[in-house]
Amino acid sequence: MLSQRLKELRNRKKRTQQDVAKYLGLTRPAYTAYESGNRNPDYETLVKIADYFDVTTDYLLGRDVAHKEVSQESLFPSDQLGIDQKDYDSLTAYQQEALNWAANNDYLQFKNKSDDIMDMIERIEIAYEVDKVMKKRKKNNK
User: Fold this and answer.
1) Rounded to the nearest 10 degrees, what angle do helices 117-140 and 93-104 cross at?
2) By C-alpha distance, which of 48, 108, 116 is closest to 80?
3) What confidence tens digit (pLDDT) does each residue in 92-138 have?
4) Do residues 35 and 3 touch, judged by C-beta distance below 8 A?
5) d(CA 103, CA 85)
6) Rounded-to-integer distance, Cα 138 and Cα 76, Å
7) If we measure between CA atoms, which residue out of 101, 99, 75, 73 comes closest to residue 88?
8) d(CA 34, CA 43)
9) 8 Å CB contact between 111 and 81
10) What's the rounded Cα separation, in Å, for the pair 135 and 126?
């Protein structure tokens, strides 16, 4: 069931296996093994896949036939921000991580390309680091 749903959702979003694998931090063959049913993702990867496709893990696993409709808006940060995929790909892994964090935490409320993308990314990196420190402090105070 999982392999069928992965392929269906990926095709519906018009993405390649490489696109999904990159988002998940996997090689394309590793992701292909999920779609072919030769391998199953671990829990953390399953959650990331569900978030990426905007569905529940129960839906992915065939336990829930009714699912949230896949949003029409792409989950790729480059699409959400209105920046070219080429520009996004040219960022460092850390910059992409910070940008993904900001996009997934609703810190970015715009869709037009910034005049100076590097200034924007620097501000996001700072906010990302502050958020990590605050979460760590909160966790340590419990």
Assistant:
1) 70
2) 108
3) 877 777 777 766 665 555 445 455 667 777 777 888 888 888 888 88
4) yes
5) 15
6) 30
7) 99
8) 13
9) yes
10) 14
The residue count of the chain comes to 142
How many angstroms separate the CA atoms of 72 and 90, rounded? 26
Residue owning tokens 């993405």: 15
DSSP calls for 57-110: HHHHTTS-SS-PPPPSS---HHHHHT--HHHHHTS-HHHHHHHHHHHHTT----
DSSP-derived letter for residue 113 is: P
- Identity of the residue numbered 54: D
Phi-psi region of 80 (alpha: psi -120 to 50; beta: other; left: phi over 0): alpha
Question: CA nearest 18: which of 33, 32, 8?
Answer: 32
**Which amino acid, 91?**
L
Per residue in 82-104, pLDDT tens?
667 777 778 887 777 777 776 66
The DSSP secondary-structure symbol of 54 reads T
| pTM attached to this predicted model | 0.47
> Two tokens at 38?
């030769």
